[in-house]
Amino acid sequence: MQIPTKLTINTVIPLMAVLMIGFTGIGGHDLWTPDEPRVAAISLEMAETGDFIVPRLAGAPFVEKPPLYFAAAALMLKIFGPLFGATAAIRLTTVMFGFGVLLMTFLIARRLADKRTAILAVGILATMQGFVQNFHWIRVDAALAFFVAAAAWCFVEIYFGHRRKLMPAAGFFVAGAFLSKGLIGPVLAATPWAGSLGMRIWTGKLKEFILRHMGMLVVFLMVSGIWIILLYVNGGPDIFREWFWVNHVERFTGQSDLGHEKPGAPLYYIVQIIMDGIPWTPIFIYWIVSTISRGIKNRTISREDIFLCVWGLGSIAVLTLPVTKRGLYLLPALPAFAVMAAVGLKDVIPRWVEWYSGFWTVICLALMALIGCLPLTATLLPAAIPNDVRQVLIDFSPYHAMAFAWLAACMILIFRYRRAVSTEYFMILMTTALFVNLLGLPLKAIDQEKSMGADIRSFVNQIPESQRGRVAGTDFTETMRGVFYYYKGWKVPQINDGERIFNILTGKDEDYDSMIVQDPEDPSVSSLYPVKGEMATGTHDEHRFFWLGPIK
Fold first, then answer.
1. How much of the chain exceeds pLDDT 90, in percent?
2. What is the band of 412 on the pLDDT scale with cuts at 50, 70, 90?
3. What does the DSSP 8-state code read for residue 534?
4. What are phi and psi of 138, to 5 degrees?
5. Which three-class secondary structure state does DSSP give residue 499?
6. What is the reported pLDDT for 6?
7. Cα(125)–Cα(278) distance, rounded to whole angstroms?
8. Nearest 5 degrees, angle CA 121-CA 122-CA 127?
9. By C-alpha distance, which of 220, 103, 206 is closest to 170?
10. Residue 508 DSSP one-character state
11. Contact 311, 152 (CB under 8 A)
12. Is the whole-model pTM more than 0.90?
């Protein structure tokens, strides 16, 4: 068999990793909590109403996030929904933003180093655990990551390539980051901006520096300001206050009660980048330590190294300041760490990296073998695994066969063609094989447990369509409001007034004559009022719903 040249291999392997991992697992499974039911429902409603200014969740304004991701997903629904189904079309939105991030990473690394390093950086990023996980999930952070990376590319071209004409484009991409996630978008885009400036802020005249950035600032204010004005006009002052004050000021200080508050956790994102970077974490840590040590010893450090350190480590520092913390917030900084790893492997592969590559290869092969052999190890599975999940794991399927096929291909590669592929690209190959398998059978097993679509449809079908107009709900979470709308198109009105709820359940209300109660605080509520239908859904059936009729 004729082996392609090394240059061809070094180009084809990252491209293969990008395509295979990117498109594997985006269809064939349901919406998952957290986030997906809410984001998908908002996107669907935006596609149906055509209102691209004020996002709505089951009819109610939802301005926790600006509308850019929802609008993009709504367009994908219009184009690809009839072909692939709504869920796959929305998830494809995330994947396309992911491809955009990979493209920008390539352009950044090519400017900072060379084309070979850029290709390697793409392969490394595409096979990072955090990247694979987050770009297969319906979340607005995918759009944020793309626009931050695009803005970073502009800054690199402006300050390293002297292409000052890209200042307006930088302003446009920073505005895109703002319209994806709010004020945190420009803040995260400011870290690569600061890194690309380096010492150049003080080497030029202040007036020249300000004028140089006016184009960027004007474009940013114009694009962002248009939506802000339209939000105030269309949504009103109360909606505007909720968007700005509650979701920015109070979230930053931990007063918003929107969840994910983690005060006093300074190491949170350090632990997160270690996990997100798997299997490349040791390599970019090696680069960081080597770069800092070299800078201290020689008292010199390149502007390219400053840029990567400020972007990556600066993002961790910036995200650590707010009380609200989530692992996915680190997603826009992952390209910086991927480029670090690629630059660290640019010239000479350290001996320990070769040993580490062998260790990682053994892990990949073992996990693929485990997936393929699950039907033979049914008795070894923990008893706590639900029966429906167990059946997916042990009933022989194409997923098990695929694991064996990948395992066989990897073994052939190892024993016959290992020398044709250098260490870093071999790691990309092994990691690609592993993730493709993890996005197969394990994904189906998890979906068996997390899927809520069938439960929601069955529950709603218990309620005659002619009666649904007189049914209200109370204390629905955002997730449950989303799934009722997404799966059945039902905007269940929410009643939170205790007296009115009592009137409904006792047949005294003019508008409603029954209630859907989610996770009632008083377990006896289902014994006090007639139960006309019930449902348990979610992971381990943690959410319970009762359709309660009035006392006759």
1. 66
2. very high
3. E
4. -80, 95
5. helix
6. 47
7. 10
8. 100
9. 220
10. -
11. yes
12. yes
Instruction: Tell me the pLDDT band of 217, cut-offs 50, 70 and 90.
Output: very high
Alpha-carbon span 370 to 372, nearest angstrom:
5
The 10 Å CB-count burial string (b at 16+, else e) for 404-421 is eebbeebeebbeeeeeeb
Q: What is the helix (H) or strand (E) element at residue 117, kind and residue range?
A: helix 115-126
Closest CA to 230 of 58, 66, 41, 59: 66
Structure tokens at 416: 């016959």
For the chain, what is the radius of gyration of the CA atoms?
26
* Assigned token pair, 444: 């189906």
The pair of structure tokens assigned to 228 is 């802000």
How many CA atoms are closer than 13 Å to the CA of 127, on its beta-carbon side? 33
- In terms of Cα–Cα distance, which of 431, 291, 290, 422 is closest to 349? 422
For CA atoms 268, 269, 272, 273, the dihedral sign is negative
Residue 6, both tokens: 């090394």
Query: Contact, 157 vs 47, CB < 8 A?
Result: no
Omega before 34 cis (within 30°)?
yes
Three-state DSSP state, 516: strand
Cis peptide before 279 (omega within 30 of 0): yes
How far apart CA 117 and CA 123 sit, in angstroms, is: 10
Cα–Cα distance measured from residue 23 to residue 19, given in angstroms and rounded to the nearest whole number: 6
pLDDT, one tens digit per residue, over 322-367 is 887 888 999 999 999 999 999 999 888 889 999 999 999 999 999 9
| pLDDT-derived band at 258, boundaries 50, 70, 90 | low
Q: Which helix (H) or strand (E) holds 60?
A: strand 60-61
Distance between CA 88 and CA 370 in Å, rounded? 28
Q: Which of 19, 182, 30, 21 is nearest to 91 (CA)?
A: 30
Pairwise CA distance, residues 548 & 509, whole Å:
14
Distance CA 364, CA 440 (A): 15
* C-beta of residue 121 within 8 angstroms of C-beta of residue 109: yes
CB 109 within 8 A of CB 342: yes
What single-letter amino acid sits at 542?
A: E
Give strand pairing partners of 543. 537
Q: Which residues contact 56 (CB under 8 A, 6 or more apart)?
A: 42, 45, 46, 49, 62
Does 60 score more than 70 pLDDT?
yes
Element (H, E) at 90: helix 86-112
Q: At what angle do helices 86-112 and 141-160 cross, to 10 degrees?
A: 20
Amino acid found at 180? S
Residue whose tokens read 């592969």: 349
Biggest alpha carbon distance in the chain? 86
pLDDT in tens, 130-175: 999 999 999 999 999 999 999 999 999 998 998 989 999 999 999 9
Cα angle for residues 268, 241, 322 (degrees, 5° grid): 15
Using CA atoms, how far residue 52 sits from 138, 231, 482, 510, in Å, is 18, 10, 18, 35
- Helices marked H in 198-302: 200-203, 206-241, 251-253, 268-276, 281-298
The amino acid present at 109, given as its one-letter code, is A
Nearest alpha carbon to residue 66 among 328, 247, 236, 325: 247
